[in-house]
Amino acid sequence: xxxxxxxxxxxxxxxxxxxxxxxxRLNLRQHCExxxxxxxxxxxxxxxAANHHPGRVEHSLGWPLDRYTYGGAFLYHLDEGAPLxxxxxxxxxxxxxxxxxxxxxxxxxxxxxxxxxxxxxxTRLAYGARALxxxxxxxxxxxxxxxxxxxxxxxxxxxxxxxxxxxxxxxxGICAAxxxxxxxxxxxxxxxxxxxxxxxxxxxxxxxxxxxDLTAVRNIRxxxxxxxxxxxxxxxxxxxxxxxRGKEPWTLHHGSSDAAKLKPSxxxxxxxxxxxxxxxxxxxxxxxxxxxxxxxxxxxxxxxLKDDSVPVNNNLAIFAGPEQRFCPAGVYExxxxxxxxxxxxxINAQNCIHCKTCDIKDPSQNINWVCPESGGGPAYNGM
Length: 383
Hints:
alpha+beta
């Protein structure tokens, strides 16, 4: 595909396929930290009207995750006529134990007595999942370059403590539009050999509330990376952030990429998840069915491997095949080879719900998510 526009705004959302290519080709991440991500899983339920409280917002932190795994949940009582609730669970993808399954942690979360009481007698209507940016201001790349700029959730405009990012995405689009208009209106902006750079875009972002907000909360997420785990983040937020509101003269760091933080399976404990009861907690395949995802059977797989030998020789041998657990759609599974002498990775690309977690968390960085044929993917309804 050829782009003939003088300036192209890239707004692909979290971990976009074109964006990650631009990062490498134009070295846009040279002066920032690696992005750190989370996976958010969500379900829509119609519950008993007696348990429904329109407008109620509930957030929780931690359980059932251990203190070294960043994550939490939300339960929103919607005010849309029917007694609907939106329930979700978020797991930071910098987790270390390869036996963690974000999907099964979500299902276990719903068995907590308080949550179960709300959902009892209800019907699950929809399910979905998506990766989220959590790196904050430390992980914002260079935003403009000859012929384009990065806007929306692609560069990482996400306020993790407030669980907000939509207004930042819109504001970044406004800043980009103003910058591009200025650039194209300038008399010296047109070149026969080089597209113009909307250089003022980054200036407008730094002068906006986006930069102010993200600077203030920059240390909350990485404060969970210490020996106290998530308790350290709670302590930091309740003391340093409460008193200084981001004016502290230091900036904490995220460290290496999420993929690099996974430990070998021999150093970790196998997690025994409870079996789904089919009423509150559910199996993976019945959940995927609710996404409405669809890809034509004869289209080329959009989930590609750089080296076909790596999943078995590295991921399965060292990390016990984490892709079969971190994927929230059952795309990856290790099955016996035809001669029953070993295992091979089977990719069920038609199940993919485009969350991008595999591209992010694969410890070998061997999985490359690319755009599928037009029209393929989840068909979320009411999510």
